[in-house]
Design brief:
This protein is α/β, with parallel strands linked by helices. It is about 30% helix and about 25% strand. It folds into two domains: about 190 residues, Quinone Oxidoreductase, Chain A, domain 1, CATH 3.90.180.10; about 140 residues, Rossmann fold, CATH 3.40.50.720. Helix 4 crosses helix 5 and helix 4 packs across helix 10. The mean pLDDT is about 95.
Length: about 375
């Protein structure tokens, strides 16, 4: 099958919209017609060369669509016509992380990322004699995808495609960071640095969990206003300088929890410095592959601070995504507040220009 897709051929170059070939689904795989694909900063790291992947590659990892075909040997839990959200971390079900309850660390995920293929390491994407690569086993900046059936979650009636798409990455990452990595936090102080899609999802998660106060830091007044609508009790404009000083002026003892949703060394340092004794920093955002930040040893030990990472919201997506959809349908997670501008596939570069320029809301590409 020939289709349109957004291809990255080298870091720093624009995406090119090309006619590419998509092979039929193999054993245990499905073909999905893409209805919506979220514009996530993670793709941008690969576009700029901050993180490397096999090239050329069809980008996009946050998507939703309708199943059009099933390969041989699928499990029977899915059918043609089902609406599904895509997951960029599959769940093999057999490796140690999967069987011990931490499926986002499934060993097949890094293999998919390293090979640019699907679970078997091979690609279904090509252009003539040229092999193209999958991005994190998804590649949804395209009209269709072939993915493992282990990389999708059914979407219930009433959940719009754009909500299903962003739930598969931004929402589960931010909400999950609170519900899974932080855990019980009713009445606890939570600081969230960054009010993009993941940061605002963290605000919703903290509000849902009963955290108080909820402090949000960003440089964009419109993003901070949106954070207030979603449950933030205090907002801080980082462009005014001395973020740590502003937080500690409000809460002299520091905050119990800090979620860093940007992925920058400077903001990770700020989050750590804002912690109260026995406070925990949850690092959520991805940065350049060699980024580091310094932790004062005595401050860490004497004040018993903790620093933990949270990938994909530390979630069990097959369990947590259905919960997110039900909470949305019940009005408990106002995910429509996250949706930003829509772009056709041909304007994928413009969508990322808008992201880099600080656009408010999660942009969505509609192939």
């Amino acid at each position: 099958m020939t289709m349109r897709a957004a291809v990255l051929r080298r870091p720093g170059a624009p995406l090119t919209i090309e006619q590419v070939d998509l092979a039929p689904p193999g054993p245990g795989e499905i073909m999905v017609r893409i209805e919506a694909a979220g514009v996530c900063h993670s793709d941008y790291h690969y576009m700029t060369g901050d993180i490397a992947c096999p090239l050329p590659v069809v980008l996009g990892h946050e998507g939703a669509g309708i199943i059009e075909a099933l390969g041989d040997g699928t499990s029977g839990r899915l059918a043609v016509g089902d609406r599904v959200a895509l997951m960029w971390r599959p769940r093999c079900g057999d490796c140690e992380p999967c069987i011990t309850g931490n499926p986002v660390l499934c060993q097949s995920g890094p293999r998919q990322a390293a090979t640019g293929g699907l679970l078997d390491g091979t690609s279904r994407l090509s252009k003539g004699d040229e092999q193209l690569h999958h991005f994190l086993g998804v590649s949804c900046f395209a009209e269709r995808v072939v993915v493992s059936e282990r990389s999708v979650v059914p979407v219930p009636e009433g959940v719009p495609a754009q909500i299903a798409a962003i739930s598969g990455c931004a929402v589960i990452t931010g909400v999950g960071a609170v519900l899974n990595a932080v855990g019980e936090c009713a009445g606890d102080s939570v600081l969230i640095i960054g009010a993009g899609g993941v940061g605002l999802s963290s605000v919703m998660g903290a509000h849902l969990a009963g955290a108080n106060p909820i402090v949000v830091v960003d440089v964009d007044p419109e993003k901070l206003e949106r954070a207030t609508r979603l449950g933030a009790t205090h907002t801080i404009d980082a462009s005014a300088g001395d973020t740590v000083g502003q937080v500690l002026a409000l809460f002299p003892s520091g905050v119990k929890w800090a979620i860093e949703a940007i992925g920058r060394a400077a903001t990770l340092q700020q989050a750590f410095d804002c912690l109260a004794p026995a406070g925990t920093l949850v690092a959520v955002g991805l940065g350049r592959v060699d980024d580091t930040f310094a932790i004062p040893v005595n401050n860490l030990v004497q004040r018993q601070k903790r620093v933990i990472g949270s990938l994909y919201g530390s979630a069990n997506p097959l369990v947590d995504l259905p919960k997110i959809f039900e909470l949305y349908l019940a009005g408990r997670l106002p995910l429509d507040e996250l949706i930003g501008a829509g772009f056709p596939l041909e304007e994928a570069n413009e969508a990322y220009d808008a992201l880099a320029g600080g656009a408010v809301g999660r942009a969505v590409i509609v192939p």
